[in-house]
Amino acid sequence: MGRKQIPVVIVAGFLGSGKTTLLNHLLSASGGTRIGVVVNDFGSINIDAMQVAGQVDSMISLGNGCLCCLVDASGMDALLERLARPGAGIDVIVIEASGLAEPRDLIRMVLASDNPRLCYGGLVEVVDGAEFESSRRRHPELDKHLRYADLVVLNKIDRIDAEQQRLLHKTVTELSEGRPVLPASHGRVDPALLFEQRPKRDEVARQLSFDDLDDDHSAHAHAAYQSVEFSSAKPLNPRRLMAFLDSRPAGLYRMKGFVHFGLPGHRQKHVLHTVGGFLRFERSRWEQGEAHHTHLVLIGAGIDADAVRAGLAECVETDPAPSDTQAMLLIAPYLR
Ligand SMILES: Nc1nc2c(ncn2[C@@H]2O[C@H](COP(=O)(O)OP(=O)(O)OP(=O)(O)O)[C@@H](O)[C@H]2O)c(=O)[nH]1
């Protein structure tokens, strides 16, 4: 089986919406996950707190195993290539788009990468809860940016009241066409929502900040999203699964796991990865002695867990000897 792919997450949002604040939060809450951060400006990242270990040209090694790189758009491809090298030991790459960048161009660039070690990890659009309405009047293109988002962080909710937050949540959900919207203050979202987290390596010198110690905040971060699991020992019907994936439930952000189709010629383990509207299957091998089965984890905000489980239960094959191998053609465009 190949090495795990490195998701590339793009963080975008209008000037001052809180992108760097969110990044700094991800870095300080990364635990044992090694993040490769790509920014336009080193100055904004809280490097002191990360104990700078050494500086190599445009790449700074942060004390906790994370790397921070400075780049302009033209150098991005080469930089991603460097960060993806196994020797760099990076688990996830986060690119902070400049406040005026067109997120679509960055998404295209990541999707166009033919580096087999990289995969698209989603566009996180940070919205300034206090300024959004006035910013979008001046910059109508902000509405369009939300359409490309896979996850929206509705930031600075400490600056608005509950009613404003409710209205904004509604507007942003509409503009993003049903993508999950996560309320936050100071960018404090649970990193587990954005990427797989490694357990903290034993007592790596990591300074706990007061934010980390504040149970109330972490409880909020956790309560803001759900994760739903689904398992089946029986094979899934590819047609029905594709129909489910074509109309993914509102609020769903990520889906990961593997699928057992069990059709003649397609008995491999099919690893599934979705972010927002993006979908990818990869064929893999079952471990020796591993029972063929399906296991999926769905992560989102405001999803109806029972409806999601029921929808997936309907994808379970009812034919005891399925033979519709043609249905696998529906999967083929998403296989890599
Ligand atoms: N009250 C409040 N202030 C916040 C919050 N998040 C960020 N800020 C402040 O907002 C300002 C802008 O935050 P940044 O994280 O620098 O925003 P940015 O999107 O990276 O800004 P640019 O790089 O200029 O586009 C800073 O002064 C932050 O401290 C929040 O949730 N509440």
Automatic annotation (TrEMBL):
CDD domains: CobW-like. One of its GO terms (cellular component) is cytoplasm. Belongs to the SIMIBI class G3E GTPase family. ZNG1 subfamily. One of its GO terms (molecular function) is hydrolase activity. The keyword Secreted does not apply. Keywords: Chaperone, Hydrolase, Nucleotide-binding. SUPFAM superfamilies: Hypothetical protein YjiA, C-terminal domain (SSF90002), P-loop containing nucleoside triphosphate hydrolases (SSF52540). It comes from the Bacteria. SMART domains: CobW_C (SM00833). Residues 225-316 form the CobW C-terminal domain. It comes from Allokutzneria albata (Kibdelosporangium albatum). It holds the Pfam family cobW. It catalyses: GTP + H2O = GDP + phosphate + H(+). Coiled coil: none annotated. This is GTPase, G3E family.
